[in-house]
Amino acid sequence: MTLDESATISERIRLGLGRLTPTERKVAHILLANYPVAGLETVSEFACRAQVSAPTVLRFVSRLGFASYPDFQRALRSELEQQVQSPLVKARFSLESTTPTGQLLNRFHQSLADNLAKTFRSVPSAEFDAVVDIFSDRRRKVLTIGGRFSDALALYLSFHLRIIRSGVSHIGGQSANWRDHLLDLGERDCLVIFDIRRYAPDLAELAAIASDRRVGIVLFTDQWLSPIAQKAAHILAAHVPVPSRWDSMVALLALVEAVVASTTERLWSTAESRLAALETMRHVPRGG
Amino acid sequence: MTLDESATISERIRLGLGRLTPTERKVAHILLANYPVAGLETVSEFACRAQVSAPTVLRFVSRLGFASYPDFQRALRSELEQQVQSPLVKARFSLESTTPTGQLLNRFHQSLADNLAKTFRSVPSAEFDAVVDIFSDRRRKVLTIGGRFSDALALYLSFHLRIIRSGVSHIGGQSANWRDHLLDLGERDCLVIFDIRRYAPDLAELAAIASDRRVGIVLFTDQWLSPIAQKAAHILAAHVPVPSRWDSMVALLALVEAVVASTTERLWSTAESRLAALETMRHVPRGG
DNA sequence: GCCGAGTTGTAATAAATTATACCAAAATGA
DNA sequence: TCATTTTGGTATAATTTATTACAACTCGGC
Q: Do A117 and B248 touch (CB under 8 A)?
């Protein structure tokens, strides 16, 4: 099995993601989400960041086709070197950066653009496709749920999916009642969890139960990966830091929209009539 | 001799350049010319690149104020991690544009970045400030509501505001019941409406009623402006087109988060204790 | 021309890192 | 349920790396 040496390392990782063991995949995701810095650390630092043991990191690197860890780092550095060739473009298009508010907006925009770039750079195509595959499969039921803030995204996703297909629900209400929803799900079905920093214990618990029941978990999370990542079949991670007291869900929403766009395209031929039917229902006059 | 820890390393080098010996200066220049990769190599690789001996490199690092070479590397990495944001990134590290999915993600990302830029460039600071002013004024009640999809953002906004202040609600449920909520609002209060393309007639109706009652309307809408714009006291518009069957709410969410960030900052001194109280309540065990 | 402060490289040493062998635990399938 | 395979961590060995001591060299001043 010879890998294409010309490919960038991040590409190599994304392509080889399928051949990795679960824990190795965790390492891969951490690296992609913190590319390339994580790989430039020592093995143990990297391992610690990914919450795995050092040998796992080494096995990961080895499976990528590198002869040794230093070899791997050399490759990363040489890639970084080429990338940095272009002069450090700092100057930015700016609106009124004179006013305090203008500056704030500028900084905020900067961070968001950044988060978007990093996020899309690190999303493995295979992972993205896998999620779209699942959402496009009408035989699989889909349940969505999220944390305190991210639940809005879970809701948004379920709205969109419900328009183009059946069998989609959003889990709301008291967390005590969540698990009841799982009763309806079987091995082929799918639980979509949104969980970002200040990870919700309630969600982790739900994920554990779902995992026990062999329900496939699709996880939308931040760059540091929610603990649920261990139980998840597929992970889509977004970058969330912004100059604010709170984390940003912009990049996460971007991922959701990309998935929705792709799924919609896939199901369009059949969704179209469904949409028309919905439209008709919507215009039926109601009392009030 | 303590150096300013806040300065970037490259800055630190430039400042200290005078105090270095000739050979050390050579090292400094090599590092600046191949920043930061050269410093991420091993001492001997770095030394070889600079055509000096290993101890010279170490003396250089030491004179910069670092306790050890690994320490120096850690600093470089952490700088890189933060800085990987703005520069360049796009071109080099971009994801597999070879695969169809890679192309799709690239196009999508491109559109979103574009929307963000256009949105932030066109937001009037005064309008932004005005909205923050309103949200920061605890005497004003705030009601949020949105359309089919944008309601998720309305919900998100209300969640955030409710954490830092009282008097915030989200209007849900049947549109027939919406107007009941307006009974609670007076002239000084505020109705926040999210309305993007395929503008909802229901919302326009609600806006008309609110306007009649002299309730101030804050409108989050798309670049073409919902018809509600005529009734609105303040408008924040975002760009929404993406290569998808649906419009994107990413830039709109970005605006919401910017407003929330600013409002939070404004109210923080008092919100902090409120947050602590909420946290306590949250941890009270519940049945189940 | 010799001396001494300052500078640089060589070589030996100490410290860390990476790599491996092995075992336990989990997953898988009959 | 049990046997078999896969997977992941621990402990340790092997290697590389950073560090230090010291000697050689350079350059000014006397």
A: no
> Is the CB of residue A243 inside 7 Å of nucleic acid strand D?
no
Q: Give the separation between CA B222 and CA B206, rounded to whole angstroms.
A: 19
Residue B2 in this model has a pLDDT that exceeds 50: no
- Show the DSSP H helices in chain A as ranges: 9-16, 22-33, 37-40, 43-50, 54-63, 69-83, 100-122, 125-136, 151-164, 178-182, 201-212, 250-283
C1' of D17 to CA of A18 (Å): 35
DSSP A173-230: S-GGGHHHHHTT--TT-EEEEEE-SS--HHHHHHHHHHHHTT-EEEEEEETT--GGGG
- pLDDT tops 50 at residue A84: yes
- A85 — phi, psi (to 5°)? -50, -50
Q: Is the pLDDT of residue B136 over 90?
A: yes
Supply the pTM of this predicted model.
0.73
CB-to-strand D under 7 Å, chain B 70-129: 70-71
pLDDT digits (tens, 9 = 90+) for B38-54: 999 999 999 998 888 89
Report which of B162, B141, B117 is spatially closest to residue B218, judged by C-alpha positions: B141
**Cβ within 8 Å, pair B245-A268:** yes
Is residue A192 pLDDT above 90, yes or no? yes
* CB A115 within 8 Å of CB A250: yes
Dist CA A112 CA B261 (whole Å): 13
> To the nearest whole percent, how much of chain A has pLDDT over 70?
90
Inter-chain contact A264–B245, Cβ cutoff 8 Å?
A: yes
CA angle A90-B132-A110, nearest 5°? 15
For the cut 90, the answer to whether the pLDDT of residue B261 exceeds it is yes
Q: Closest Cα partner for B200 from B146, B242, B125?
A: B146
Q: What is the pLDDT of residue B188?
A: 86
User: pLDDT (tens digit, 9 = 90+) per residue, A87-143?
Assistant: 333 333 334 456 788 889 989 998 999 899 888 988 888 889 989 999 999 999 999
Q: What secondary structure letter does DSSP report for A233? A: S
CA of A52 to C1' of D14 (A): 23
Q: Give the residue from A26, A188, A114 showing the smallest Cα distance to B90.
A: A114
Task: Compute the distance between CA of residue B165 and CA of residue B180 in angstroms, rounded to an integer.
Answer: 23
- The predicted-structure confidence for A151-171, as pLDDT tens digits, reads as follows 999 999 999 999 999 999 999
Amino acid at B12: R
Residue A257 in tokens: 């929209």
- Can you give the pLDDT at residue A256? 98
